[in-house]
Amino acid sequence: MQGSGSIRVEGARQNNLQNLTFDLPLGKFHVLTGPSGSGKSSLAFDTLYAEGQRRYAETFSPYTRQFLERMDRPRVDRVEGIPPAIALGQSNPVRSSRSTVGTVTEIADHLKLLFPRLAELTCPDCSQPIRPWTPHSILADLIAQHPEEEAWFLFRIPFPRKTPADEVAAFLARQGFRRVFLGGHPHRLDEVPGLEALARALKDTPKEKNLLLHVIQDRLALSRSGQARLVEALTSCLRFGKGVVAVARVAAPANPRLYSDRYFCPRDGRDFHDPVPALFSFNHPQGACPACRGFGRVIEIDESLALPDRHLTLAGGVVKPWQTASFEECQQDLERACRKHRIPLETPFKDLTPEQQRFVIEGEGGTTRDLQELWDSGDWYGVRGFFRWLETKTYKMHVRILLARYRAYRPCPECGGRRYRPETTYWRLSGLNLPEINALPLSRLSELFARIKTKDPSAQTPLENIRKRI
Prior knowledge:
The chain has about 475 residues and is of the alpha+beta class. It has helices spanning about 40-55, 60-65, 100-105, 105-120, 135-145, 165-175, 190-205, 225-240, 305, 330-340, 355-360, 370-375, 380-390, 395-405, 420-425, 435-440, 440-450, 455-470, and strands at about 5-10, 20-25, 80, 120, 130, 150-160, 180, 185-190, 210-220, 245-250, 255-260, 265, 270, 295-300, 405-410, 425-430. Strand 7 and strand 8 form a beta hairpin.
């Protein structure tokens, strides 16, 4: 950019400026640098910007000037050639320790709106896609895959193992159903062979389990000409089966297809959260990892700080916080417990066996036993037990200060630092879950969202906003 004159400043004395006179060419980038207190802000903001803004404001009417920012005239002899000025102040957009590049740029906000609309749910147990079905969508799927084939329409009812077969038959008969599906074959419960097959199925059910009995609602051909009756059969199965319907083809009855009208895996009996925006935000309890509450890290006692020099012996003070008068009783408890269990006190801690080291740190019974129980029984509470006890006294300032010396941040053991609860990671967009998308470099992130196409109008706005911010 070619220069177009210059700004002439004479006798600038604002704040700590010492009668400064200079020419500043226009149309160029200028950088002010120097140590703190050298007058950079006084020159840039309090002199140049203040005079430029003041002169610009004077071009407006008195009525308009009352709505503009008023700046004092800088302490300067003369300023010539200065144009209207705009100042961009420095600000820190990071609001909390939860903030990330995604939250500061608002990409995370638009992602949590996009995921409920475009992401797909996969069951973590059977790896099958999960979606809510309606009678019409079930019918369309069946006709597309097996047109004109005959099929049994079934719903499942659980019965306890010890339920007599005649009671099951009587219960179903009162509802108007007399046929069931057992071992891939239909059976009538108003006939002896059917009752006997049901009795065997109940007897063979594992203990403490229920028999999921498939009750036959109808047998129909998968044809569009009979669509009304097919939809009626599916609606009835969903109602009696509490949202789950099974369809067994007559040609291959052994493996019926299962459908549900909610986010539920009928193969594993597992329910899932509905895809609401809160599920895809680590700043909301519904989406945040319950262990770290969405921070991605937890603060724990760091053994390397509590036992900094493992060349020391147990008697020589390897446990650092117990080498003061306040906690010398803990050192005595340690030595007493080690003598009882024949753990050498004069051997460097690093040379003790892993079991002996674990005993010193974890105590008797590990970290699961109640502290009061350990204390009352006289058993060894361990280094971790000592810190667990301290954490019950954090209402005391000196205890909080002491704990701070031996704590350290670590990645959350539950989410691995990904911040989200497990249910959030079951949802995938273009094959990636939300933590995996957050970990992508910007170049790959841009490519990913450039490939995503959708006809859903409610997804267009968040998708475009994500692309612009990337």
